[in-house]
Structure formats: C-alpha cells, structure tokens
Amino acid sequence: MASHRRPKQPSRARVTVLTATAAAAVALTSQAAHADPKPTKSEVKAKVDKLYHEAEVATEKYNGAKEQQDKLKKQADALQDKVARGQDELNTLRGELGSLAAAQYRSGGLDPSVQLLLSSDPDSFLDQASALDQLTAKQAESLQKIQAKQRALAQQRKEAQGKLSDLDDVRKTLGTNKQKFQGKLAEAQKLLNTLTAAERAKMAEEEEQRATRAAGDRVDLGNGSRSNGSGGDEAVDLGKEVPASALGAAALQAAHTRVGKPYVRTATGPNSFDCSGLTMWAYAQAGADITRTTFTQINQGTRIARSQLKPGDLVFFSNTSHVGLYAGNNTVLHAPYPGTNVRYESMSTIGSYQAAVRI
C-alpha cells in the first residue's frame, strides 16, 4: 500500500523571516517611490540665492552693530579718561583745602578778642585777622569747587557705565548676527555641494557670461559712450544717463577700479568688499563720507525714482539688504555675494528692486 504523508508545514520561524523580508522589500520600494528627487541646478541656485540674501541681511545687521560698537567704545573710553582727569583735579582741590585748613589752624588757635587783648601790636593783629578772613573765604570757595567736581564725576561715571552696558548689549547682538550669517552660508555651501563639479562649473560660467554682457552695457564715463563689449565703444545719446554730478561719476570710476576683487563679508576694501563696503569705499575715494550699512545708506542723499537713475546713484535691492552703484543702461556695479567678485550685472538678475538714492 502506498504511504500517504501530510506535507511538511513551514516552521513558525521560517514564516516570520519571510514575512519580515517581504515587508522590508515593500517598505524600501515605497520609500524609493516617494523619495525626494535630487534638486535640479536651477532649484539649487534659487535656494542658494535665498540663503545668500538671508546671510546678507544678517551681515548688514552685523556691520551696523560693529559700527555702533566702535562708536560706543570711543565714547566710553573718552568718558573714562574724563573721569580719571576729574579725579586728579579733585585730589588737587582736596590737597589745597588741606593746606588752607592747616594755615587757618596755625593763625586762629585762640578766640580773636583774646588774641587782641594779648597782642603787643594791635595793628599787626588786625592785619593778621584780615588775612584770616581771606583764608576762610578761600576755604569756602575750595569746598564749593570740590562739591561741584564730585557731582560732575558722579554724572560722568554714570554715563560711562551706561555706555559700557550698551557696549555689552551690542557685542551680544554682534555674536548673534555672526552666527546667523555663518549658518546661512554653511547651508548654502551644503546645497552647492549636492551639485556635480560640472554643474557648479556651468553655473559659474553662466554668471560670468551675464557679468560680461552687463559690463558691455555699462556707460563709459570717460568719453560719454557705451562700451559694446567688443573692445570698442559705441557712441550713444546718453540723455538721462549723464552722471548726476562729478561726485557720482568719481565714485563709479573708483568702484570700477575694484572690478574683480573678491566679495568678503564685513570687508570695506581696498582689496575685498561686501556690498555696502564697496559703496562706502567708492564714495570715500570721491571725497564723500557715507555710512556703513545698506539700512543707513538708503537714508542719505536724495531719494529718486527708478526712471530718474543716473550713473553713480546708489541702488537698493531685496528689502534694502543689498546695494550697488548704478552704471547706466539698467546695469549695476556691485559686490554680489560670497564666492564672487566685484562685477557689473543687469538689475533684472540681482533681485527685487527696492529704491535709489543720489548722494
């Protein structure tokens, strides 16, 4: 007779392993299906531009706090020097008062009426009494001077302490903003590192091409013509492109000599710049002192409409966090962001236009 055996059932452990393996395979397939695709070069650039903008805001706030710190330190140092000099003057006055007190003691040890009775020379005594009165008056005057000096010193010490307290607060603000822009720049670099070397090279090449085209469109202030980017100059009717003043033209010419210099955050030249550092340096070469940050430069000079722009005017972008010098024909000369150099660029590629100022 044939033997009938029941088929062997898989063990519980085997079933568990197979089930887990199948579940893992399904999970991996699901994750692969829903994984975020690698961002494109244009998406990376858009995100990096946004991070650079945020870093620039923090950098300008840092620059402003640094400028405020320098001013406060000078003021605090001056007040502390003033307090030290005042203390020396107070010590001198106290010494003079001590001398007067000693002289009074020597001259006035007895009651004046008793001294007159005992004096063999009343006329001489009366002269001494008159001198004693003058001595007492000097003593009173010295006391008044000491009291006034003490009050002045107390006020100066209070002012100095206030400046030092403000200085401490500003230093904390400096540290906060430094951490912010360093964090944004690190995040931007991390994003750039997701691109291949070829993609990064292509991005740099495209930016260089834009800068070259913009440089060709700028106004040549030297001869009142526009460079055509091919080594020659194309004569044009500049009309409103004529420099607003010798000052604006001189500032733009100074900035032009810095083309190719690297962007370095918080730098003010002459061999590296951030955006407001370049504009401040350029106007300083032209003989005009302007403030350090975009947030304060926008409040200098005269606010003008975009349609009235002339070379040398300051042009602000991205909620006043970025500034450059207008170079004519919709072109700006500026220090863009880390990893780039001072260059000409079309206003349409920089960011959202905010305002313009004529110094």
Q: What descriptors fit this protein?
A:
359 residues; alpha+beta; 6-stranded antiparallel sheet; 3-stranded antiparallel sheet; 8 helices; elongated
User: For the largest beta sheet, what order do the strands appear in spatially?
Assistant: 4-9-5-6-7-8
Discrete helix count: 8
Helix/strand order, N-terminal first: HHHHHEEEHHHEEEEEE
Unreliable stretches (pLDDT < 50, length at least 5) are: 26-30, 113-120, 222-240
Shape summary: elongated
Average pLDDT across residues? 75
Describe the structure.
The protein is α+β, with helices and mostly antiparallel strands. It contains 8 helices and 9 strands. It has helices at residues 12-34, 41-107, 112-118, 122-192, 197-217, 246-256, 275-285, 294-297; strands spanning 219-220, 225-227, 233-234, 302-304, 314-317, 322-328, 331-334, 343-346, 353-358. A 6-stranded antiparallel beta sheet has the order 4-9-5-6-7-8. The chain is elongated. The termini are far apart. The model is unreliable at 26-30, 113-120 and 222-240 (pLDDT under 50).
How would you concisely characterize the structure shown here?
Helices cover 60% and strands 10% of the residues.
List the topology elements.
Layout: H1 12-34, H2 41-107, H3 112-118, H4 122-192, H5 197-217, E1 219-220, E2 225-227, E3 233-234, H6 246-256, H7 275-285, H8 294-297, E4 302-304, E5 314-317, E6 322-328, E7 331-334, E8 343-346, E9 353-358
Antiparallel strand pairs: 1-2, 2-3, 4-9, 5-6, 5-9, 6-7, 7-8
Helix pairs in contact: 2-4, 3-4, 6-7
